[in-house]
Each structure stands twice: as C-alpha cells, then as structure tokens.
C-alpha cells in the first residue's frame, strides 16, 4: 500500500510521509519512531506551527477532532482502556521538535507498575525516552551519532516497521469512519 498522499509531509524539518496514517484538511496522524508504549502516535497540524497559540480556529478545531478520532481508534486497536493525551507546548515544556504535536498513548491498567505506576509516563515523555527530535535527527544522519544510553528493549524502529504500522492504522481509521459515519473525515 503506497503512502496516503504523494505530497511530502513534514514534521518540523523531517520528512514523515511514509509514517502518516491519517490526513485531514488541517492535520495528520503519524506513527512514532520510538513509542513509549505500543500504539503511541502523534497528531500534528499540517502547517508547521510551533505552538498551540499559533493555530487559527479551523486548525485548532481540526486538530482536536482528529485527536479524538485517532484516540478512539488506537484505544480500540491496541486493546487499551484509557489514553494519555499530551501536548508539550514549547521548548520549556519539553517539546523537542518545533512543530506542534499531540501525543496519544494507549494505556492499560498496570502497564507501568514496574516503573513506578501510571504517572511514570510523564517522566518518560519529558526524558530522553520521549525526545522525538533526537530520535529523528539520529535517524536522518544529519549529526554524528553518540553512544546510546537507552535500554535495549526500546530501539528506534525501522522505516519498514513504521510504514507497516501506518498502513494498519490507516485501514483501521477507514473502518472506524465507516462504522461511525464520521463527519470529520480524512482527505
């Protein structure tokens, strides 16, 4: 299955077209290079706005409707019972790519008990584990690679792995829209 669009889609300076699984008029959803938990995806505006306050009314509405729709799908697809939905709005809040994005993380009861409980996700988002910018820079080979200090169980995924997940989630989004009769649809 080819990418959803032939138009290049950028997340900050990074070309992410093959990782995109859902497109709307103003937003896109993509799989994460190094998900904190299975199903951790991102929703971002198509226009490379750095902050939430940079979006116009149509973009804000579209972004949050897309977050709701994608969240419902990943929760079902990954068998989750809850979601973490987070925006790190600016560098001081932990934003590592200067392009507004919303993290959607499917959660299950006791999924992080071995790391201190469900609130451990916030430290993961703010720490090296959640540094999407660093992972994308290392993948793009635009700067020297430094020795990894991450645990071996969380390796960055390959382009092929991310493209396969994007295809599966694109199919699920279409199925959900058909069953919901959603008026907020992809392009």
Describe it.
The protein is an alpha+beta fold and 187 residues long. It has helices at 57-77, 120-126, 132-140, 159-180, and strands at residues 10-11, 14-15, 20-23, 27-31, 41-45, 82-87, 102-107. A hairpin with a 2-residue loop joins strand 1 and strand 2. Helix 1 packs across helix 4 (159-180). The chain is globular.
Please sum up the structure shown:
32% of the residues lie in helices and 16% in strands.
Question: Which characteristics define this entry?
Answer:
globular, 16% strand, alpha+beta, five-stranded antiparallel β-sheet, 4 helices, 187 residues
Rg (CA only): 16 Å
Approximately how much helix is present in the residues?
Answer: 25-40%
Structural class: alpha+beta
What kind of assembly state do the chains in view correspond to?
single chain
